[in-house]
Amino acid sequence: MKDKVLLFINGDPPKSFPDTEEYSLIACTDGAFHYLKNLNFPLDKLDFISGDFDSHSGSDENMYEDKFIYTPDQDKTDFQKALEIIAEKDLKKVDVFGGSGGEQDHFLGNLTVAFGFKDQFDIKFYDEFSEYYFIPKQFAVTGVKDKMISLYPFPAVENITTKGLNWALTNGNLDITSRIGTRNFAVEDEVSIQYEKGDLLIFVGKNYL
After folding, report:
1. pTM of the predicted model, to two decimals?
2. 119: alpha, beta or left, given left = phi > 0 and alpha = psi -120 to 50?
3. Model confidence over 18-77: pLDDT tens digits?
4. Which intervals hold domain Thiamin pyrophosphokinase thiamin-binding (predicted)?
5. Can you say whether residue 102 is alpha, beta or left, with left for phi > 0 and alpha for psi between -120 and 50 degrees?
6. Strand partners, 68
7. Helix (H, G, I), strand (E, B) or coil at 116
8. Are 203 and 185 in contact (CB under 8 A)?
9. Given phi > 0 = left and psi -120 to 50 = alpha, else beta, which region is 37?
């Protein structure tokens, strides 16, 4: 049974689209609506489009007006407001495209929003270079030999041990102010990670080194 959401937000447009048949709900923010239209995404597949719509005009906007959910709250980002709408749908997995690129404060803001929802959703970001997401304290990923693996503490992780990475960690600590675990790579097909305290992002590169 499909239980995933496909969400487009207003960063760099994806180079290609995933199979929409894998998702039970497809949505976008109003900024992403523009690039979806320009890339000839099948707009009829969208279940909702959220935002304040201050930049919308034209026939496409009028045609899909019944899918608009007006969210004018300026104290929240469009990404956050979209996740709040999705929270009402009882769906737990959210694949996000358009989370990076453009102005980097938006990228950092999107990570912060995802952090706030990490106990409610399984959120995965996808861009041209990698997929990235918060991981639990016991975690393994397969099919990654020779791929770039970056570990990023948010903001600190204690007693982390890894297996399958070129530069392994054994009961180590990572901290955003002193030591992070970026630009590593997998030497085995499976990489396992465990840590005792904190929160950790993993970036899994799309391409082989």
Report:
1. 0.94
2. alpha
3. 999 999 999 999 889 989 999 999 999 999 999 877 655 555 666 788 899 988 887 889
4. 143-201
5. left
6. 49
7. helix
8. no
9. alpha
| Nearest residue to 79 via CA among 115, 46, 42 | 115
Residue 103: per-residue pLDDT: 79
* Spatial contact of 201 and 141, defined as CB atoms under 8 Å apart: no
* Torsion, CA 194, CA 139, CA 116, CA 30, rounded to 10: 150
Catalogue the E-assigned strands of the chain: 4-8, 25-29, 48-51, 68-70, 93-97, 122-126, 130-135, 138-142, 147-163, 172-175, 181-185, 190-194, 197-208
- Alpha-carbon distance of 106 to 112, in angstroms, equals 10
Give CA–CA dist 190/167, Å, rounded.
Answer: 14
Residues with Cβ within 8 Å of 74's Cβ and at least 6 positions away in sequence, in order, are none
In contact, 24 and 5? CB cutoff 8 Å:
yes
Contact 79, 29 (CB under 8 A): yes
pLDDT digits (tens, 9 = 90+) for 3-16: 899 999 999 999 99
